[in-house]
Amino acid sequence: MHNSHVAPVDVLDLSSFRLHSGEARRLEVEVELDGLDLATERYVARPPRVPATLDISRMTGGGYALRLRFEAAVGGPCMRCLADAAPQLRVDAREVDLPGGGEELDSPYLTGDLLDLRAWAHDAFALALPDQILCAPDCLGLCPVCAVPLRDVGPDHRHEAARDARWAKLGELRLE
Asked: Are 13 and 114 in contact (CB under 8 A)?
């Protein structure tokens, strides 16, 4: 449940939990999701602050295994018809940070014991986006001739084919 008086967590000091190897902690936090620019359009999380579940596990060797889960809608123009779209996304992201474990085990969101939760939530949200953000899965888009939304005019919407002016003189030709 959204609690408006709780400040969202941007950076979390994992050392404050004093976890030993093999210990874990589950936190209920609130994260703020920054907007995204896709092509020339702006998309935002709805709501911009969401409750999230963060699982922190301390690994042997001093590293962390992390899991972040939350849900939010992505709001902005439909990529087919430009109407308002807000598909719901479910985010389930994992990160591992093990000092000396190589590039694959080096999380960009952890500096020492400081977790940049806001950056991680933003990137996880962006990675959860569908290929196309649509107002409805079956959106038909816009008529390529008159730009009316095809959902408003039905399947029989048609236009007469425009005549090519370069061939106009041939229309005057009378063969007998």
From this structure: yes
Which among 50, 49, 62, 52 has a CA at the least distance from the CA of 20?
Answer: 62
Chain centroid to Cα 70, Å, comes to: 12
Q: Which residue range is the domain that position 16 belongs to?
A: 11-136
Q: Is residue 105 part of a domain?
A: yes
Q: List the alpha helices (DSSP H) in 52-167.
A: 117-127, 150-153
**Is the residue at 119 inside a domain?**
yes
- Split into its structural domains, the chain has a count of 1
For residues 146 and 158, the answer to whether their CB atoms sit within 8 Å is no
Residue among 122, 120, 117 nearest 33 (CA) = 122
What are the pLDDT digits (tens) for 103-157?
A: 778 899 999 899 999 999 999 999 999 999 999 999 989 988 888 888 888 778 8
Q: Where are the alpha helices (DSSP H) in the chain?
A: 117-127, 150-153, 168-172
**pTM confidence score:** 0.80
- Residues 24-78 pLDDT 10s: 999 999 999 999 998 889 999 999 999 999 999 999 878 999 999 999 999 999 9
Nearest to residue 72, comparing CAs of 92, 45, 51? 45
